[in-house]
Structure formats: structure tokens, C-alpha cells
Amino acid sequence: MVDSPSKHLFLLVLLFRGVVIMAINQIPDKTLLQKVDQCVQRTGTGSQSRVKISVSRGEVTLKGTIQYEMQRHNIMRAANRVAGVRRVIDQLTVEAKRKNF
User: Fold this and answer.
1) DSSP state, 19?
2) Which residues touch 42 (CB under 8 Å, ≥6 apart)?
3) Does 16 fall in a domain?
4) What does the alpha-carbon distance between residue 91 and residue 87 come to, in Å, rounded to a whole number?
5) What contacts 37, CB < 8 A, 6 or more positions away?
6) Complete DSSP assignment for 41-80
7) Contact 27, 84 (CB under 8 A)
8) Cys-Cys link to 55, which of 6, 33, 34, 38 (CB 3.0-4.6 A)?
């Protein structure tokens, strides 16, 4: 799927004689959610992990449980690599291991 540029918000402020340059290319949250979800699914977190993803103004929040701490790194890296993501908030918890006696 290719996004058309008309779906994106562009803001450009130029630097000219002391005025600050600021450029924002905001991809719609729905599009970011789809892309982040695809990337997180590709990390192979396993069927026992339950990760819920939400996006608001380019900020991605990851909630839920994972089986191993190593999965956190892979999930966070995948979310951060998506173009348009401004910040990733980690609210993941590692599921306590059950002891079988």
C-alpha cells in the first residue's frame, strides 16, 4: 500500500534572520498503527505474548505482557523504526514464570 502525500500534514517554518526552521511531516495515526502492528508482528514475539498498540499524534504506546525481557528490545526497536513515529512509550511487562511443582 502506498500512501498519497495528500493524506499527510506538512508544516514548514523557515529560518530567515533569526527565525527557527521547523518541519513536521505527520503521518495519520491510523496509518502508523497499521505499520507499527505489522513490524511488531514480524518480531516473532510468540503466541503467549499479548501486546496492544495505540497511537496518538505520532506517539506509539505499547501495553501488555511479553514472555521474555529480550522481546521488549525487539518490539521497541521495530516500533521506533517506523517512519513517522515520534516517540515510543513502553508499558510492557514481563509475564511472571510459573513454577511447576
Assistant:
1) P
2) 78
3) no
4) 13
5) 53
6) HTT---TT-EEEEEEETTEEEEEEEES-HHHHHHHHHHHH
7) yes
8) 33
Asked whether residue 19 is domain-assigned, the answer is no
C-alpha cell at 3: 500512501
Question: Cell for 44?
Answer: 516473532
- Residue 35 located in a structural domain: yes
Which amino acid is present at 12? L
Note if the pTM is more than 0.90. Answer: no
Cell numbers placing 83: 517512519
The CATH number of residue 43's host domain is 3.30.1340.30
Is the residue at 86 inside a domain?
yes
pLDDT values of the chain reduced to their tens digit, one per residue, 101 residues? 444 444 444 455 555 555 554 555 578 999 999 999 999 999 887 666 789 999 998 999 999 999 888 899 999 999 999 999 999 999 999 987 766 66
Task: Please tell me the total count of domains within the chain.
Answer: 1
